[in-house]
Amino acid sequence: MSKPFRLHRARLETLVDGVFAIAMTILVLELKVPELIDPRSANELMSALAHHGSVIGAYFFSFGMLAVFWIWHHRLAATLHEIDLSLLVCAIALLAMVCFFPFATALLGRYPTNVSALLVYVSVLGLIILLQTLFFRIAIRHRMILDTILKKEVLAAHAKNVRGCAIFCLACIPTALRLNIYAAIGCGILGGLLVWRARGISRS
Amino acid sequence: MSKPFRLHRARLETLVDGVFAIAMTILVLELKVPELIDPRSANELMSALAHHGSVIGAYFFSFGMLAVFWIWHHRLAATLHEIDLSLLVCAIALLAMVCFFPFATALLGRYPTNVSALLVYVSVLGLIILLQTLFFRIAIRHRMILDTILKKEVLAAHAKNVRGCAIFCLACIPTALRLNIYAAIGCGILGGLLVWRARGISRS
Amino acid sequence: MSKPFRLHRARLETLVDGVFAIAMTILVLELKVPELIDPRSANELMSALAHHGSVIGAYFFSFGMLAVFWIWHHRLAATLHEIDLSLLVCAIALLAMVCFFPFATALLGRYPTNVSALLVYVSVLGLIILLQTLFFRIAIRHRMILDTILKKEVLAAHAKNVRGCAIFCLACIPTALRLNIYAAIGCGILGGLLVWRARGISRS
Amino acid sequence: MSKPFRLHRARLETLVDGVFAIAMTILVLELKVPELIDPRSANELMSALAHHGSVIGAYFFSFGMLAVFWIWHHRLAATLHEIDLSLLVCAIALLAMVCFFPFATALLGRYPTNVSALLVYVSVLGLIILLQTLFFRIAIRHRMILDTILKKEVLAAHAKNVRGCAIFCLACIPTALRLNIYAAIGCGILGGLLVWRARGISRS
User: Fold this and answer.
1) Which residues in chain B have their CB less than 8 angstroms from residue C18's CB?
2) Which of A122, B6, D89, D140 is most buried by its number of CB atoms within 10 A?
3) Closest residue, chain A, to B17 (C-alpha)
4) Residue C65 in contact with residue C132, Cβ under 8 Å?
């Protein structure tokens, strides 16, 4: 055990699958059965559910996002042969954010018109995307990628990740505008830089 | 990674098992310990539990339904060799419905005499059945079925799925009648069409 | 798929592991953070926790029981080569009881002096033990046991299960006495019959 | 089945992964969406979240601790070839503590200035560390370690575990001081003894 730290990939994948499955299912715990004055009134229940429409909408949107992140993570992880300590720390940070996501969803579902709730939600989303990109970048740097995968394909995948970050930054501009103009400009500049970086990676 | 999207079947099955296991267990979270005036009164507790009988009944019925869906999904998934993007999207939508199911159960358990609650519950059930049938249909269309399985068997399984949809439609007629007569007629016609379609598939 | 129903053992084991892991963890959700008048008072918190001692005790006892059932199930399941429909139905009923167990624990933890709460708890325990024994009995009847296991060992395991049921019945007598004398006598007779049956199995 | 009790390692690892994944995710259930007077006020939500800062901090810290324990457990478990009964009991006790951990976190997050809450939290942490060390010690005693692992490495790992216990004891001194001086001295002495023991193990 004085050897450098290595973890078998299958172990991490079981934990990742477990955490994603639970985070996806826990989202629904935020949906509360509404209290009705007349328990038999179909209209009252329907309008109560429609009133909670933003929570239900946030539920399905967040479920979809988690599913996308799960698929993305597995496509990246499938290219690795082993996990070293930095990769593991990065993956754990990612999972912490994934587990935090139901809370951010509940905040946004409860206060859909509140800028702070939107900010927390978008930050968690952004951190997840950032950590996924970082995860793959560390894997490339530490030569953890399987030999059977062409270098060109690895770089293409990395460029795609960076482009994903760029798209997220640009998509955040409307949200940032609700905060103030400087945040929006910052998002725009960051997005532009990332687009430029992604182009650099795919050319090299 | 410019290759067409493919996911290993085992990956999806782990997520499916996780989500089903959690959704089944989360059903029980809707059962609340009743508040008693006299904590030592055995009769009061029994009558409180009997009063919550509809919730407990809804719990066991929903648990059984989820178990049936889980077995059904695995029997279908066992015939696939790989998962492509459309199949994955269909499976994710199915899982979203499965995770939503405990909420629908809680609604129905809380308001057993409310038509809207019944409607939400039946819709979620219907969507799960529909998505399962669609899942297998896409698999057939995209030639994802294992070569070791005879074409006749595949068609028989598909016909069985469509027949399941038909039975569900016909079983919905009493519920639809509580809404209005047109919904009931619609259910009847849809059920009839599906029976006819199932017969067509098993003959071809 | 017109072949008799068969499910791969590994599939069921994943679901069983998932359900047990979640039921064990959900037990803790019944432990509520007590409300304190003075948030800094160490004594008040300690006495509040001591007051909730029965809940915490019920938690650890139930956790231990679930762990025992999990080990027991896997030792039985490890002797099977396949799962047929009756075994699957039996296993699903077992899982439904396992998922219901946290609720029964919460009832007992909340009302430790209430006979009805004890009755519900003991009934769920009894059903789990019964279903495990039934599970193995069906497996023997339907010849699902692996050929590598000696018939003598299989019978010894079955006798052990029946003896477990007998011990449970006898251990229930004090609880049944709190209900009425006839229930206690019934438990005693049933326990005696099961002891006698277990002896019969191990002799054959 | 009259053979000595043996459990396949993979079975235990699935349960461990499941329990850890759920305990990590359940931590977030303690984070409650704050109630706002003005639902659109961004400042009010931010200050409410900042007010709950200790809960959010406790969440991330506890998530990290669970991740560390999970990695630690798997590194130890990877050296075993089988699980006997004592190891299993030790692992189950460890899992009971892991499942109890979200409750201890909720207590500390709710009452961060309360000595009793800190005491419960630190005790659970300490028990987890102790049980891990015990787990590996039993494995060494019962010769469950894989033959491919050098005796020197096994002892180094054990010494590392004992040193972990020592560091924990020494790190507890400030907490113990808040209780009373004798507890602090006890922690110091225990820590010293463990450091000395760890040195003894690594020398032998």
Assistant:
1) 17-18, 20-22
2) A122
3) A21
4) no
